[in-house]
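Deliverable D4.2, example record:
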Amino acid sequence: MRVVSRRDVSLRRVLPFTSVVLTATIVGQGVVLATTALPPPPPTPPPPVVALPTELAALARRPFTLDEVRPPPTPAPAPRGNPVAPNDYGTEPYVVIGSIEIPRLGLAAPLGEGIALTTIDRGPSHWPGTAMPGDTGNVVIAGHRVTHSAPFRKIDKLEEGDEVIFSTEGRRSTYRVTGSEVVTPDAMRIVDQTPDATATLFACHPPGSARYRYVVKLALDSVNSTRPGSPILLGS
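Output generated by the structure prediction step:
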């Protein structure tokens, strides 16, 4: 028969109690850890303030103006400036675009459109590609001095200030003579376009010869509408 000592009995009584206490302690610590909130992270410091130069700071405080936000203006259309190449012996339909009057010469005639001789033979003619009467640019008109109706027979009698009047496209455009010159037939500069409203009349020179060209220069004086009830377009 085994004899149990008093020490063994004491251990058997203490061990279960100790296990319960340890278990309760561990569980309690776990609950405390689970329910305890972590401290919030430290706040992020604000970004450093950078001082703008005086000029930039002033721009930043200034409101935008309409001129800064609106698109750039559309440039004005260029004046008509592509005169066609001369075509003396070509053929083209005869088209009347209006009339021309030169009081000093007693001339009042239809104004054709074209530069071929077949058109100029019918009367004064507008060089295609040059400005139209009343518009910005150089209106170029050719005419005969001797053959056919000889509308420019006395073109060399025009003096500074004399009127040349075109009636086209519902308006009456009055030009005044500013000067004259004699050039060779190859002086194509007479058809060059100008930034102002000008006109050029030319014909062969001297009468009965094609050796030179007599050129009369004009400047626009006024434009009036010929439609009933229409106002003056350019002061006379």
